[in-house]
Structure formats: structure tokens, C-alpha cells
Amino acid sequence: MLKIRTWVTALVFVLVISGVVIFQTQASLAKNPPYSIDNIPMPKLENPLRILTPANEIFEIASCSTKDFGFAITTAQIPPGGGPMPHVHYYINEFFWPQKGGLEIFHSERKFPDMSNPPTVEAAGRAALYSVETQPKQVVYSPHTFMHGFVNPTTETLPMVMIWVRDEVAPDFEYHDGGMREYFSAVGAHITDLNNLPTVTDAQRNAFVSQAPKFGINQSAFMMQYVTSISDKFPKNLAKLQNPQTLNKVIETINAFNNDDKSVTCG
Ligand SMILES: [Cu+2]
Asked: How far apart are CA 11 and CA 256, in angstroms?
């Protein structure tokens, strides 16, 4: 008899605690919903460039530019376990838009303003990362000189749009986009048939790291090379990093190209 009462008490206790946890999570999501956006168009191109990256991402990638603005955009498919190791960009500012959520993005609070001083033990020193388990259509913004990376921790392939907006410090690249299309085109495997994917070679995997600085990136070769710890307490100041004006300018530029506006070049 006593045993049953103990079990019932324990069960009620567990139910109450999980109820409180679920309620608090929902309440906090309702109070601080992540910044999200419904749709991001792709420039309509006849033969878009498709690349299998050394981080195992399938990219359809394009670059657009006007007189004073340039960016590269990709719609990516990220297979289970796919995604780049932590890295730092110097020439571009990056937007992540995981349509279905589920991808885990890592971000530093610390900045690494000097490209010749990467976050290694020997140079600027490693740093802590904070992870955010993304919600569907959430926008995560990462200005240049912060460290970030991401992974698909699930067992299904998940989509993500990434946009790399040229920063004013960037040198001029072929597509006037800050260099990310040029980087992936140089170090990735070009896809001619989506049903018959190429294999990424060891040389391409090495180039992903060794060639990165040419394109304004310090790319780590393994998970903890730049990282001391990973916390799931994503700080509020990082969640607040947003740049809707620039994201809207990207969308307007793509829409203008798709509506035949000759002042926009995409390729
Ligand atoms: Cu990045």
C-alpha cells in the first residue's frame, strides 16, 4: 500500500515539474520570440551553380550586386552531421535562415578583429561558443569578426538559406560579393547531376582550411581548435544581434533582379 502511495507521489511530482519546465519554456518563447521571416527568394537563374562543400553541404549558390551593394546567397541542404567547423569571416556579414529549424548554430561573444591573429592557442587564444537550437524560419545574424559554425544534429537532411553580405572592408572579387561564392567554387566539388553527387577529395578538404584566408576567412580544421567550451545558454546580447535593414535590402535586390531590373546583376 505504502509502495503504491510512494509511486503515485513520485509520479505527481514528476508531472508537476515537467509541467513547470514546459510552461516556462513556452512562456519564454512567447515573451522573446526569435526574430523570424516568412520567405527569402532566390535569384532566378537558368543554370545556377551547385556545389558539394567540404563541410558536406549541398549548395545552390548565386551572387548579386548593384553599384553599392553585393552579396552571395545559397539555398543549402545540410545532411545529418553536416555543417562547417567554427570559423571567422572578415569580409562579409552572414545571415542564417533555417526554414525548418532544427539546425544548431554556434556563436562566440568575443570578436577576433585581426585576420592574422586567429582564435588558436598560439595566436589570439581560443574562445567559448554558445549554441542556439534554431526554430523554423528564425533569422540568426552574425557580423564579421565573430566566430560561428553550425551542425545538423538530427537524422534528417535540413534546409538552410545563408546570405553573405559584402562588408566595406572587403577587396573586390569577381562577383563583387565579398568572396564567398568564389571561395566555395574554388574549394568545393562542382555538382553536375544532383542524383549523382561528386565526392569531396582530401585535397578539397585541406583547401577548405588552407585557402580560406585568401577569401577573408579563418576556418578551423577540427571542432575544438578555436573553442574552449560550448554552452547552451545563448546570451541575450547575441540573440539581439539583428540587421533587418540589410536583410530587406538583400530581398529587395533579388526581387528587383527577378523583375528584370537592369541595375542588378546576378550570376
Ligand atoms: Cu560563416
From this structure: 59
Residue 226 lies in a domain: yes
To the question of pTM greater than 0.85 for the whole model, the response is yes
Ligand 1 centre distance from Cα of residue 89 (Å): 6
Instruction: Tell whether the model's pLDDT for residue 33 goes beyond 80.
Output: no
> How far, in Å, from the CA of 141 to the mean position of ligand 1?
10
In a domain, 217, yes or no: yes
CATH of the domain at 91: 2.60.120.10
Q: Residue 83: give the domain boundaries.
A: 49-259
Evaluate if residue 147 carries a pLDDT over 90.
yes
Report d(CA 31, CA 3) in Å as an integer.
42
Q: How far is the CA of 208 from the centre of ligand 1 (A)?
A: 12
User: If you average pLDDT over every residue of the chain, what do you get?
Assistant: 92
What is the CA(75)–ligand 1 centre distance, in A?
Answer: 14
Neighbour order of strands in the sheet with 127-133: 217-219, 87-89, 146-151, 104-111, 127-133, 227-231
H/E stretch holding 246 reads: helix 244-258
CA 3 to ligand 1 centroid distance, Å = 56
Structural domain count of the chain: 1
In a domain, 10, yes or no: no
Asked if residue 86 belongs to a domain, the reply is yes
The confidence score (pLDDT) of residue 5 equals 75
Distance 24 CA to ligand 1 centre (A): 32
For residue 15, is pLDDT > 90? no
pLDDT tens-digit profile of 66-76? Answer: 999 999 999 99
CA of 223 to the centre of ligand 1 (A): 14
